[in-house]
């Protein structure tokens, strides 16, 4: 179900980026985590077995962003749930949420060699996701 003009335009462009990234065969998971830990080294201790959570965390972020673009019925509850689950680790500064989302989008766009329409679509949805988390 589409909810506004931004979501109507964004999901096809976002899917095209996902397809190009998949065709490129670049594993963005370690790229994202390397960047995140470089910026927030204190968070590394929260991941004693990073490989156990890394792929799931990236997938959930991408799914949430794409779900926002599609106006998926499940996306709001899913975002509330994964933010709530992260409270088990203490207070997570908004700067870390913002960096995580931006790093995920950046890595995906780099893997797809995308900068124009698809990039703008992913970034619009990233801003929506950040606003939901910050609310």
UniProtKB/TrEMBL annotation:
SUPFAM superfamilies: Globin-like
GO molecular function, one term: heme binding
Signal peptide, first to last residue: none
Superkingdom of source: Bacteria
Transmembrane portions of the chain: none
Name of protein: Hemoglobin-like flavoprotein
Organism lineage string: Bacteria, Pseudomonadati, Pseudomonadota, Alphaproteobacteria, Sphingomonadales
